[in-house]
UniProtKB/TrEMBL annotation, chain A:
It is found in: Cell membrane; Membrane. This is Transport permease protein. It comes from Oceanobacillus neutriphilus. Residues 17-242 form the ABC transmembrane type-2 domain. Its main location: membrane.
Automatic annotation (TrEMBL), chain B:
Residues 2-229 form the ABC transporter domain. InterPro entries: AAA+_ATPase, ABC_transporter-like_ATP-bd, ABC_transporter-like_CS, P-loop_NTPase. GO terms for molecular function: ATP binding. Gene3D superfamilies: P-loop containing nucleotide triphosphate hydrolases (3.40.50.300). Pfam families: ABC_tran. Transmembrane segments: none annotated. This is ABC transporter ATP-binding protein. Keywords: ATP-binding, Nucleotide-binding.
């Protein structure tokens, strides 16, 4: 498994496209939106907006890892790498873990870098860093599990990219990552409660402000884990079909 | 020794392989020959246990293929399947690690394989900068990292330059000398004839014939005579055997080739016909395939 993991990590770290999607673009969006929405004179309001935008764009952009996940699995399947590896002593579930785990590392690095950017440039408060870390680990699991399920289910890269856009952008809009949830109609606020982005965003904001309640935290972690686990089960169910197609 | 016992494989309603049995002696080079769709790649994927759902049995040294047995198998796929965005060294490192090579022994083996495939000076370069021939050699190198006893090559010379082809032939000769068993699937009949000791002909999923190449040539290939000249008539030649035409010349297939040549020479002298070229053609594996199937490999 380590053999696959090392190569994947090496490839990801050299991938300029991935760096753009995962770090540069969210930083650009964060800077742009903060400059647009903090033109008022009220410093306290401006800081409140920043405290919402920074975690909002972190949550939105972690979902873009799903594009890379789909690309990696579909490419491996179509160019024969999955089949070639099946001729080696590597067990099939080690292949899956070897491909999946590097993405979790990338997402954790992404979240840490973006929070540090917020801290250094906008002096955002990171009131409860341990809780932020725990939340980061859970959202990482949720996002990469959804990515894995999608990578093992879709037929083509284009299909995967399209679905990722719907999940990432649609979820961001409905979860209040772009604008305060209170400004949206009631039915949209209800929908938001079914989306991982909403829970992650709310809890990130609470942890940044240092106001996290244990019950609320557990609720968020439970929701994120449940969505991630459901996606992971779908991935496990789809995996044999993916392998069967890969060796044809 | 690799033994394939009565294997059959279906893809939905299509029968890709029908009751194929082959015994491949250790330390030999065994050719698998057949047109596209004959079932060569399917058989190879079954040997390497990429395909596992089939009827029949495949054994290597009298043991079924398991993860432990796979340590002794090296598979060179038909397509170039490498990680293009990392170096040749890293590719070999990955395949070495998959076979549990570590530390110094891994690094030492990478250097050995890079030398073997003639890429010692390009080890640190990204694979995406390599020529097709270099990628083909690295494709083979990855399968040799764990020094396997059985190397299975599926069309390893497709689309490469003559220099790389020569290099690959030399590698295969060296593997044979080192006592390795090589399975070589190809539809380049001349390559199989040059490299292999044994051959199995596959056509539409069935094994038509197999055995030592020298014996098959003796058994099936009819000697032929190449005749080119002006005024020589096909009817005249047909009294000695079967005649076909090729680029304005005649190919005469006959069991009594020398006798037929004498008659043709006499006939041409008597009738003052000009002979441009008259020669005895060495029997080829292609002829064996033609005799067995009634068609050429690349028809």
């Amino acid at each position: 498994m380590k053999a696959i993991m090392f190569v994947e990590l090496k490839k990801h770290l050299q991938d300029k496209g991935l760096a753009f999607w995962m770090l540069i673009l969210p930083i650009l969006f964060t800077v742009l939106f903060i400059s647009v929405f903090t033109t008022g004179d009220n410093e306290a309001v401006n800081q409140e907006i920043i405290q919402s935008i920074v975690p909002g764009y972190i949550v939105m952009f972690v979902f873009f890892i799903m594009i890379s996940m789909v690309q990696v699995f579909i490419k491996d399947r179509d160019r024969g790498m999955t089949a070639r590896l099946a001729s080696t002593p590597l067990k099939s579930y080690y292949y899956l873990l070897g491909k999946w785990l590097p993405f979790t590392y990338i997402v954790i690095i992404q979240i840490v870098v973006l929070f540090l950017f917020g801290k250094v440039v906008y002096n955002v408060s990171l009131g409860q860093p341990i809780i932020l870390l725990i939340l980061s680990l859970f959202i990482t699991f949720t996002v990469t599990a959804i990515g894995l399920a999608m990578a093992l289910t879709v037929n083509t890269e284009n299909m995967g990219i399209a679905i990722t856009q719907i999940i990432a952008l649609g979820g961001a809009m409905l979860s209040g990552l772009w604008m305060p949830l209170e400004m949206m109609p009631d039915f949209m606020q209800t929908i938001a409660h079914f989306l991982p982005q909403y829970w992650a965003h709310q809890s990130f904001q609470d942890a940044m402000a240092g106001t996290t309640q244990v019950s609320e935290l557990l609720q968020t972690l439970g929701v994120l884990f449940a969505i991630g686990a459901a996606a992971f089960i779908i991935a496990i169910i789809r995996y044999p079909y993916f392998l069967k197609r890969a060796v044809k | 020794m690799l033994t394939i016992h009565n294997v059959t494989k279906h893809y939905d309603k299509t029968e890709a392989l029908k009751d194929v049995s082959i015994t491949i002696p250790g330390g030999t080079c065994y050719g698998l020959v057949g047109p596209n769709g004959a079932g060569k790649s399917t058989l190879i994927k079954m040997i390497t246990s990429i395909i596992r759902d089939y009827e029949g049995k495949i054994e290597f040294n009298e043991k079924e293929i398991t993860d432990k047995t796979k340590q002794k198998l090296g598979y060179v796929p038909q397509e170039i399947i490498l990680e293009e965005d990392i170096s040749a060294f890293s590719n070999l490192q990955m395949f070495g690690r998959l076979y549990n090579l570590k530390g110094n022994s891994l690094n030492h083996r990478i250097k050995e394989v890079l030398a073997l495939i003639g890429l010692s000076d390009r080890g640190k370069d990204k694979v995406s900068t390599f020529s097709g021939g270099m990628k083909r050699r690295l494709n083979i190198g990855c399968a040799l990292m764990h020094n396997p006893d059985l190397i299975i090559m599926d069309e390893p010379t497709v689309g490469i330059d003559p220099q790389s082809r020569k290099y690959i032939f030399k590698m295969i000769e060296d593997l044979k000398t080192a006592g390795k068993t090589v399975i070589y699937a190809s539809h380049y009949m001349e390559e199989v004839e040059k490299l292999c000791d044994y051959v199995a002909f596959l056509d539409r999923g069935e094994m038509i014939e197999n055995g030592a190449i020298s014996e098959l040539l003796q058994q099936y290939a009819i000697p032929s005579i190449y005749v080119k000249g002006s005024g020589i008539l096909q009817d005249t030649l047909e009294q000695y055997g079967t005649v076909s035409q090729e680029d304005g010349a005649f190919i005469l297939y006959t069991e009594k080739a020398l006798e037929a040549m004498e008659h043709i020479i006499s006939h041409c002298r008597e009738n003052r016909l000009e002979v441009e070229r008259l020669e005895l053609v060495h029997p080829r594996l292609e002829d064996v395939f033609f005799r067995l199937t009634g068609s050429n490999l690349r028809d």
